[in-house]
Amino acid sequence: MSRVEEIKNLVDETALDMDKFYEKGNKAAGTRARKGLQNLKKLAQEIRLEIQDIKNNG
User: Are 10 and 39 in contact (CB under 8 A)?
Assistant: First the structure.
């Protein structure tokens, strides 16, 4: 799976949980949404470092 697909899947999953939390008041979905956002942050940082490494080492 490419990095772009990983981000898209994570955003889609998190968006579903955020919708459930904000629209339906599902507190468990809020917890899952926070976890998804944290994972998205972690993945974004990994990709940033990977890009920087490729850029610097050619």
Answer: yes
Decide if 6 contacts 43 (C-beta within 8 A): yes
Spatial CB neighbours of 17, under 8 Å, sequence gap ≥ 6: 29, 30, 32, 33, 36
**CA separation for the pair 39, 6 (Å, rounded):** 11
pLDDT digits over 3-57, tens only? 999 999 999 999 999 999 999 999 999 999 999 999 999 999 999 999 999 999 9
pTM higher than 0.90: no
Helix ranges (H only) for 1-58 are 3-24, 27-57
